[in-house]
Amino acid sequence: MLDGLMNWLADLPTILAVLIALVGGGVLSAAGLLVVHRLLPQGIRSAHNDISGFILGIVGVIYAVLLAFIAVAVWQNFGQADKLVQTEASLVGDLYQDTAAFPDPTASDLRHYLYVYAGIVEQDEWPSMATGHPEEAAGWQLLNRFHAELIQFHTQNNAVAVMQADVVRTLNMLYDARRGRFHEATADLPAIIWWNLIIGAIILMFFTYLFGVPRLLMHVAMVSLLGALISLVLVLIVLLNNPFRGENRVSVEPFNRLARSVEGMDYPHP
Length: 270
Fold this sequence. Notes:
Blueprint: H1 2-11, H2 14-39, H3 42-46, H4 49-98, H5 106-130, H6 137-152, H7 158-186, H8 191-209, H9 216-241, H10 253-263
Helix pairs in contact: 1-9, 2-8, 2-9, 4-5, 4-7, 4-8, 4-9, 4-10, 5-6, 5-10, 6-7, 8-9
């Protein structure tokens, strides 16, 4: 249920997801206060404001540290995914240019595999990663063909042999970047983290209800704004948790630029 809700939010337009989080957080916080206000009259709660305030300060700091830590970690993972995509596209471009060192038909075959691979990443793998179920097979098959073609090539030219070894190293780096991209597309925060965030927010909001404020309307306004703020950070974590899903996903533009640069190269195109 929790996964379904997060996926639903991630697939919404950003502005709509933020509005739902703000309104939902504010309304739920206000509703909780009204329930507590009926069960514990303001006079009883106001008598313990000093102790409630002290404990609320401790709880607030603990939850703020947890929330900030998770938000920063998710943002760093998002940046890492974006860097992996940039690296992968750059490595494919490097390999494409390095094929100029080989004679035809080997060079043409290698360029063909790379050109088709970039198209598969852009047209097939990117949409599938948005669903959390990436389609890897076709891309790996092309890289395997590229690898087989490269290894089967034999030459007596030392310069070409050195370039061949360098291309193998670059190909291995491409494998690593590709595996990293798929890992980022399927990785998720552990369930215990989500439950800590949710239960921590509930505990924090409950302590704000224990204050006895003379005017109920002001109390409702304050807890609603706090609930909306917490929800805003939580929806930020949800939207960035899967870097290849939703409106805020990592861009496929590096592969688009790669395709455009390949079309401008001098040697024959696939």
